[in-house]
Design goal:
The chain is an alpha/beta fold. The chain has a single domain, classed as TIM Barrel. About 40% of the residues lie in helices and about 15% in strands. It contains ten helices and ten strands. Strand 1, helix 1 and strand 2 form a beta-alpha-beta unit. Helix 1 crosses helix 10. The protein is globular and about 45 Å long. The termini are close together. The mean pLDDT is about 95.
Length: about 280
């Protein structure tokens, strides 16, 4: 398994150059870039509400040349770009009858930029269940959208990784596995987030049930005594059974990137990055 870190782990005012340099110094092998919306004040507010902060980097108006340039600089520092992530599908859900079209366009943009950056996967939130969008409608719309987009993922040689998030949707590992099997293609797999399932499940069970369907893995810790979005915590500072997670990943022969995804602290983010790298070394050892 390989050590990665998500761009949301860095202060929003850091340049890409500073981020890449610090990632390399901390001993990570790769950094996951995030796609934000150009001049998107509404999106910025949404991202902050999720406990995240958009940083400098790729936007919906970035070119493939921009992505190639970041990837080239990363390579000079001994790094790779394993994947692209975004929070935009909270604002433009694939399951929304109005915003779904823009959600698909965002996936297409991510696929283009990921191919340019030689990233093998993108992270996609599959949709939201809301008062206006029923669970069964969300299931059908998400499956339809991802089935359509799978052909484009294949054309770009980039896997669409469906993330398990707090979206009131795909709430069990059995259903998540069934959903992926219904889409029925190796170009749509799971982007598994360890910390996101601890509120109502056990990460090691999810890993074994999803098995070969895993494309990428996010790691963060979670304090069950808090039990809400404020319960997310740095690695080794919560209730995740990391030895069980490590063994499950080994049992399913997962060998891809395991990327840290936690917001940066208010002070000394470089030190927090080094601590995250050391914690990940212990988890994966």
């Amino acid at each position: 398994m390989r050590k990665g870190v998500n761009q949301w782990c860095f202060p929003a005012d850091w340049t890409v150059e500073r981020m890449l340099t610090e990632v390399a110094k901390a001993g990570f092998e790769g950094v996951e870039l995030n796609l934000s919306e150009a001049a998107g004040d509404n999106h910025s507010a949404l991202v902050k509400s999720l406990g995240l902060k958009d940083a400098n980097g790729l936007t919906t108006t970035s070119t493939t040349a921009d992505a190639r340039a970041i990837a080239a600089r990363a390579k000079e520092l001994g790094l790779t770009i394993p994947s692209l992530s975004t929070a935009l599908h909270w604002q433009y859900p694939l399951t929304d009858p109005g915003e779904g079209r823009k959600g698909r366009e965002i996936v297409r943009r991510m696929l283009e930029l990921a191919e340019a950056a030689e990233a093998g996967a993108i992270l996609v939130v599959p949709g939201l269940v809301t008062e206006a969008v029923s669970y069964d409608a969300a299931y059908d719309r998400a499956a339809e959208a991802l089935t359509e987009l799978a052909a484009e993922a294949k054309a770009h040689n980039v896997i669409i990784g469906v993330e398990n998030v707090w979206n009131k949707f795909l709430l069990s590992p059995l259903e998540f596995r069934r959903f992926l099997d219904d889409v029925g293609t190796d170009w749509v797999k799971a982007y598994f987030d360890v910390g996101n399932v601890l509120v109502n499940g056990f990460p090691d069970q999810w890993i074994r049930i999803l098995g070969s369907r895993l494309a990428r893995v996010h790691v963060k810790d979670f304090r069950q005594s808090v039990g809400n979005i404020h319960g997310f915590a740095p690695l080794l500072d919560g209730d995740v059974n990391w030895p069980a997670v490590r063994q499950a990943l080994r049992d399913v022969h997962y060998s891809g990137f395991v990327s840290v995804e936690v917001p940066p602290p208010a002070h000394f983010p470089e030190a927090a990055l080094r601590q995250a790298a050391q914690a990940l070394d212990l988890i994966l050892a």
